[in-house]
């Protein structure tokens, strides 16, 4: 009998290790021969630790489980108070379109056999048979855009690198995932690491790169361990190494660890960091595609971008592009975070509305109070209000309302949130993480904190100052840290101006 | 093995790699709890960089430090998704319960802020030594360091 107890960091933070130990000891006591699989998370974080028992009818879920709930799992599973029925029939799961996350939660993350049995490596095998031209056309035709935030078409980036002449080229996976409210990269790496490896291999093959790096933030020790083990396994099986799958060109991957700098998620800062330097941002041009790691032509792509590539090659660009809205093709793993009842990861086609995700799928706030604001796209993303619940989630659709999709984290706040304090925090965070290369960001963000404090103390001139400052930061910053920090600030100010003024004095009786 | 021997072993193990400095600093810190000043000269010699360059890199990254932390390190997330779940108030209560302020080490306990642990759907998030803790409360975190 197989019992699945997630090894995902969120599940573990909610007690999955103790539950796994209880399952093992209860099985031992009963002399049962079971296999415990530490799978990835299904993404229904409010149900974690979510244990699944394999039955003839399918996998039955139980959660959120505590060790004390485990004996009943063996004694009377049918009447278990935390039984959830077939996991894949749970509405939150069933309503998804899981392409990038197709295998996450289903398989043993480190079993190549599981990976292949669930469709893994089909994409790479097909790519190996295609012409160089056809491979690049496939990525272009899929409409796949960078999932790290900027939404740049992956196919165009790959074409540029493929066209560059160099003795060695590089594929760098950006796994710095620093945005608050996002955890999809982490879940993918922990739940289906071979998908990322296969995607990087296809990228290497397509652009002619032999060297690969995954740059993972140090805050993700679990993901680092899984990715290291997966690369070793892939090398051992001949998937990676001197010949991809035994007959392709050479390609190998090294795991590198960040060191606690948010700005190192910016691609040129990341490259400096990989080279062993301070993670300051480089001016563009030259583009990393032509002059990247150690001056070599380099593809830098987000985890989700790369991990989606195998699906595209296995099922065809058209099948992928059939999903989505406008110029946002395919699916996006949205992350429902913060004060939300059903928090977790929900992969669906672009075009779903904000309200569907927050109120429908997410079930509103965890506190049960009204939703006040939703920040989309991390600390540099705008705050939206329930008035925007009709907004379709897509790159252009969000830009039209002065926001970004970013890495698709949705952070929900209830009506107790202090929007002035959150705007101040956005400036404080920018000041804390600024790489120092340009004045609007380095000095402007610190000034921003002061000006917001002045507004909240009642200075009537401060609002104009803040707006001017945001203007300078937007247009005068070298990268999006300084350039986008005004998004959360101005969106909060425009929607909740009263929260930037001194608290109203109580009228004397 | 003496400290100097261990340092030269770590430096030698990474020096041949491209962009060796961060992996080297991470491993030194794993071994000593910090990047000891005694390691500066060997690193500079192995990588052909100046003391100022090395200092610049160490200072740039939040992770690297010159002195070890407390025996227990509590990291609490201050980023937005955790704020939405009351992280600021939780941290304030924790500071009072422990008698340690953010950024300080008192006795065996270091308390520091972190900006997102990837546990944003089950905040407030925290980490005590190498254990991640979701839906953290001051009581739970204080208990973890007493355990
Ligand atoms: C301050 C800052 C932080 C960023 N952090 C990340 C990150 O953590 N992960 C990521 O993939 N992209 C991040 N980006 C975007 C990258 O610069 C780059 O656009 C991306 O890695 C390209 O890959 P993609 O096209 O697949 O999205 C960040 C950008 C900025 C300005
Ligand atoms: S905007 Fe800020 S982080 Fe970006 S390059 Fe300028 S100083 Fe560095
Ligand atoms: S915001 Fe706290 S864990 Fe992500």
From TrEMBL, chain A:
Record Gene3D superfamilies: 3.10.20.600, 6.10.250.1450, NADH-ubiquinone oxidoreductase 51kDa subunit, NADH-ubiquinone oxidoreductase 51kDa subunit, iron-sulphur binding domain
PROSITE patterns registered for this protein in UniProt: COMPLEX1_51K_1, COMPLEX1_51K_2
Q: Which UniProt keywords apply?
A: 4Fe-4S, Iron, Iron-sulfur, Metal-binding
Q: Which cofactor does it need?
A: [4Fe-4S] cluster; FMN
Family annotation (InterPro entries): NADH-UbQ_OxRdtase_51kDa_CS, Nuo51_FMN-bd, Nuo51_FMN-bd_sf, Nuop51_4Fe4S-bd, Nuop51_4Fe4S-bd_sf
* Highest taxon of source: Bacteria
This entry's Gene Ontology molecular function terms read: 4 iron, 4 sulfur cluster binding; FMN binding; metal ion binding; NADH dehydrogenase (ubiquinone) activity
Domain named NADH-ubiquinone oxidoreductase 51kDa subunit iron-sulphur binding is located at 420-465
Q: Report the sequence similarity comment from the record.
A: Belongs to the complex I 51 kDa subunit family.
Under which name does UniProt file this protein? Formate dehydrogenase
Automatic annotation (TrEMBL), chain B:
How many cofactor units bind, and how?
Binds 1 [2Fe-2S] cluster.
Instruction: Enumerate the InterPro entries for this protein.
Output: NADP_DH_HndA-like (IPR028431), NuoE-like (IPR002023), NuoE_N (IPR041921), Thioredoxin-like_sf (IPR036249)
Tell me which species this is from: Pseudothioclava arenosa
Recorded protein name is NADH-quinone oxidoreductase subunit E
Entry superkingdom: Bacteria
The positions annotated for binding [2Fe-2S] cluster are: 77, 82, 116, 120
UniProt keywords (A-Z) are:
2Fe-2S, Iron, Iron-sulfur, Metal-binding
Any keyword Coiled coil? no
